[in-house]
Amino acid sequence: MGEIIGFAAGTGTAQGYLAAKKAGKGPGIVVIQEWWGLVPHIQDVCERLATEGFIALAPDLYHGEKGKSPDEAGRLMMALDIGRAAADLGGAVKHLLSHPQVSGKKVGVAGFCMGGQLALFAASKNPEIGACADFYGIHPKVSVDYAAIRCPVLGLFGGKDEFVSPEAARKLESSLKSAGVQTDFTVFPQAGHAFFNDSRPEAYNKLAASRAWEKLLGAFRKSLLSPA
User: Nearest-5° angle of CA 29, CA 90, CA 154?
Assistant: First the structure.
């Protein structure tokens, strides 16, 4: 269903994985990778969104590189050029809005791990983003101006996450609320970090992932399919 495409990003170009519904129009969603890169799991998330009626684009923020071990993935994450990533994400938003199958004037953004923090970052930089989902987001080099976010934020975290503690998730929620952002945060008590990644059996939590997926679909449909 999906394919690798090129799109304009800042003064250059970027690539990403695009998955669209078979026929008709639907809201656009930018999907942001974990620290591993644009791997099959992220492509599968795009495919699942397309099956649900969305047009999903996952920009390749590592520009062809992938982490094959935690050490390598960590190195790639820390070496990420934040300015270039911002251009790639902004380009993905604009590409979706110009796509003939994308309906509406707003798109959603959903990110996982590193991508969760970048989803908040993208929402703060792009007023065309009308819904944001942060799955256990973390990136020590990405600072977000919460007051610049103008869309609802869905937060999905694990109660046994060793990287983003429940306390950190609640602190993020409080900071967003203090900045006037509408939030809906859930901490799944028995889930750890990367609980949504079904390609990693040691991390995957089927119950939490299923409930998080339903919350994601509900939030995006509510925000992006409304008459406004």
Answer: 45
Q: CA nearest 15: which of 33, 34, 36, 41?
A: 33
Which pairing describes strands 153-158 and 129-135: parallel, antiparallel, or unpaired?
parallel
What is the model's pLDDT at position 226?
A: 62
Round to the nearest angstrom and report the end-to-end CA distance of the chain.
30
Residue 43 sits at the vertex; the CA angle it makes with 37 and 46, to the nearest 5 degrees, is 125
Asked whether residue 11 carries a pLDDT value surpassing 90, the answer given is no
Confidence of residue 82 (pLDDT cuts 50, 70, 90): very high
Nearest CA-CA partner of 18 in 48, 64, 55, 45: 55
Contact call for residues 211 and 184 (beta carbons, < 8 A):
no
Q: Which domains does the chain have, with CATH numbers?
A: 3-224 (3.40.50.1820)
Element (H, E) at 176: helix 166-178
